[in-house]
Structure formats: C-alpha cells, structure tokens
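Changelog entry: the AAA domain-containing protein record was regenerated in this release. Current contents:
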Amino acid sequence: MKNYISRPLYIRRIEPFIDKSIIKVITGQRRIGKSYILLQISDIIKKNIPEANIIFVDKEQLAFTEIRNYMDLYQYVLKKVTGHNHNYLFVDEIQEIEEFQLCLRSLLNENKCDIYCTGSNAKMLSSELATQLAGRYIEFPIHSLSYGEFLTFNQCQDSTESLKLYLTFGGMPYIHNLTMDKNVIFEYLRNVYSTILLKDVVARESIRNVSFLENLVAYLIDNTGSLFSAQNISKYLKSQHVNIPTQTILNYLKALCNSFLLFYKNQRAENPKG
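Regenerated structure tokens:
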C-alpha cells in the first residue's frame, strides 16, 4: 500500500457506494488531495477483494498522454478489464479527456466496472455529467484540511501556536512534507496558485485580461468574508478610472468558482427578504 495520511471524513462518505452502479466523482481544486482519496479507496477495495482488478488512469502522467478522448479511454479500459465482476476504474483529472462522459455512460450501461474519477473544473464536470449521466453519478467535494486534520497531518498538538500556523499557512495537504518555514511554504502556495490560475482559469476559460484577473483575485482576498457583487466591483473600478463591464467581472468570478479557487455564497438564498 502507498504511504499516506488517511482522511476518514471523506472515506466514510464514499465507502457505502463501493460496488454500487453509480459513478463516484471526487471534485476539488488542484493539490487538495483528490488523488490520495482515490488511492485510499483503491487500497480498501484491494484489502477486501484481493482478486480485484484495478485500472488506474492518471492524466497528469505522461504514460497516459495517448488517452485524449472518450474512445481512447474506452479502448484502454476494454483491454484492461477481466472476465470476473471485480473490475474497478479510477481516472484522475478526467476533465482532461475530451467527451469523457460518453465513455463513462457506456461503461456504466455495459456494467464493465465500478467507476471513480476526480476533476478540477466544476463547470465542465457538472454540465457534461448532468447532460449525459443525470441521476447516475454522485459528487464528493474535497476541501482543504480542517484544523483537526491539519493537526494530524503535521503531528501538532492543539495549541494557540498550532492555530496560528493553520491560520497563516492554510490547509493544503502537501504542506506537511515541508519545514514550517514561512518562505518555503509561501513559495509552494504561490506555485499552486499560479498553476490553478493559469491552467484552470486563464487557459480553460480563454481569459485575455490576465492582469485584471490577478488584480480581481487580490481584491477578493483582501475582502474575504465581505459582501460584494459584480456590479459593485464594476462601480468601484470605475471610480478608479478602470472600465470593466459588469458581465466581464461576473464571467471571471464564475471562472474562479469553476476552478475551486473561489467559493460563492448566495446570501439571498438564506435571507430572501434581506
């Protein structure tokens, strides 16, 4: 088995759906630990079913570069499945496979394997899965470490100092592999942020005004927990002699949410009279 620190909160949610005829979709931003959730589920299956045939596709590895579209994935799986009923398919970063939902639908209909996948783009996953597989998948959102998980990962005791570390560095799981050095951790976090912003937001959403996007993110970070709207941001920018249409700002906000870099909270849904 691989060496990792378990995240039982998520494992307990997924376990009841093992061997059920429904696609398990694990979502969340890059480097949040989705791949390790897949590994943990895989190890649980192998422990309970030694003869299990695990088919693993990781689109971040060069070995799987040739799997570009749904037919590539389908043909690859057909070559790997065995005659018994214990075939399990794990696909990491499935949004990198064009029209992946067509393959998943076919595999599900043919009862070829038990399917698990991860994805880092909410828009792509929700729209494509909802179109082709409505009612046939279940989503498990993965978030950064809670304070309790942070203590476990970093082998810390609950203390004021530990809480300060958590509030300073956040809950990205990989941090536990680094020394608790401010410069080292912030350098790592900057690289994660840049990857998400450029690959999952700018490239995927074809955003041209990257400079404004970066300034928008900085503004949102400075106003974390505050109420705001795209219209209010547009008005503020106009007061600073920056003319960005409200719809453009709204599109950028949606793109940030789709990459899980930003989380949207609708106050009106909780307080319709407010």
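Residues 207-274 form one domain.
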